[in-house]
Design a protein that fits this description.
The structure is a single chain. With 329 residues, the protein is of the alpha/beta class. The protein has 2 domains: 169 residues, P-loop containing nucleotide triphosphate hydrolases (Rossmann fold), CATH 3.40.50.300; 101 residues, Helicase, Ruva Protein, domain 3. 46% of the residues lie in helices and 17% in strands. It is built from 13 helices and 13 strands. The strands form 5 sheets. The chain has a 5-stranded parallel sheet with strand order 3-6-9-1-10. Strands 2-11 form a two-stranded parallel ribbon. A two-stranded antiparallel ribbon has the order 4-5. The two termini are 19 Å apart. The relative contact order is 0.16.
Length: 329
């Protein structure tokens, strides 16, 4: 087993050079937001959709567009609005008067990277149309089902402060995002660089440094990264602590949690941890990988009660307490 892991680590070190190329190229345009870029790459390498949440102006859209530009793959940006229709997203059947037949007009969701900008501005009909694409990686138009191109990734943004004209995302849809990343303000020195870079006429540009085939190859490799049974037990302890806190020495959380993390949390914790290990050039997962991505996987999967809201206890606080109480292998 040790020999296999060593060999895998050597192969990963070679392939991880692609990830380093993407990060370096994206860094020409995106200043500072290394955490956000890494989380987008984790989604990319582990076949998981990513939801970015942050106030306007924090380069969420720019980062996604830049990342897509570093890969020679098809990119589509969809601006979600209250009057958007499902057909605007997935496509529709168009009647041809000449021959009396219906022809299929595919929508912008048929791309490798789909940027769903301000995703919480579209009504439930549009969100349900996106659900099939996200989960099944296919779209049904009329009586036919069409597979989406591979790799396929939905990268969505939402603004947490402005509630006018927004619709809260259904829990079933939020759960389909592997990661929910909260984007924060840049540091002072980073903002100074942003100010100097983007106040000029000649804006920096990025080139494609990876191909869709290379991404699929990395995905296949990431799936082979070794996860010890002790790590699997650690993940299960974390997830079950969110459902039965009283059995994990956290009785004070019982009245604060309305519902715990779903089985998708266990799956995504392992998948995201493997991608995190890949970015660290390792052929095996360590507890630090789980702890590094744990907040982004769990923060949108735990429902809090009115009591928690009244006491101003956030989901993040609950996740931190769970990580603090569950024993690390």
């Amino acid at each position: 087993m040790d020999a296999d892991i060593r060999e895998l680590t050597l192969r990963i070190e070679r392939e991880a050079e692609i990830a380093d190329r993407i990060l370096t190229e994206a860094g020409k345009v995106v200043v500072g937001q290394k955490y956000m870029l890494e989380r987008l790459l984790i989604g990319l390498f582990s076949n998981g959709h990513v939801l970015l949440e942050g106030v306007p102006g924090l380069a969420k859209t720019l980062t996604i567009k830049t990342l897509a530009a570093t890969v020679s793959a098809q990119f589509q940006r969809i601006q979600f609005t209250p009057d958007l229709l499902p057909a605007d997203l997935v496509g529709t059947l168009v009647y041809n008067q000449k021959d009396g037949n219906f022809t299929t007009k595919k929508g912008p969701v048929f791309a490798n990277f789909v940027l769903a900008d301000e995703i919480n501005r579209a009504p439930a009909k549009v969100q349900s149309a996106l659900l099939e694409a996200m989960q099944e990686q296919q779209v049904t138009l009329g009586e036919k089902t069409y597979p989406l191109p591979q790799p396929f990734l939905v990268l969505a943004t939402q603004n947490p402060i402005e509630q006018e004209g927004t619709y809260p995302l259904p829990e079933a849809q939020v759960d389909r995002f592997m990661l929910k990343v909260k984007v924060d303000y840049p540091r002072r020195e980073e903002e100074a660089r942003i100010m100097r870079t983007f106040s000029r006429v000649d804006q920096p540009k990025v080139s494609a440094v990876a191909t869709a085939d290379e991404l699929l190859r990395i995905r296949a490799m990431v799936e082979t990264i070794y996860v010890d049974p002790k790590i699997e037990e650690y993940v299960l302890d974390l997830v079950f602590a969110s459902r039965q806190p009283e059995q994990h020495k956290l009785p004070e959380l019982k009245p604060l949690i309305q519902y715990g993390a779903s089985p998708r949390a266990s799956i995504f914790l392992i998948k995201a941890a493997r991608a995190h290990a890949f970015l660290r050039h390792r052929g095996y997962v360590v507890p630090e990988d789980i702890r590094a991505i744990g907040m982004d996987v769990l923060r949108h999967r735990i429902g809090i009660t009115y009591e928690a809201e009244a006491e101003e206890v956030s989901t993040e606080t609950i996740v931190e307490k769970i990580f603090g109480a569950v024993e690390v292998p």
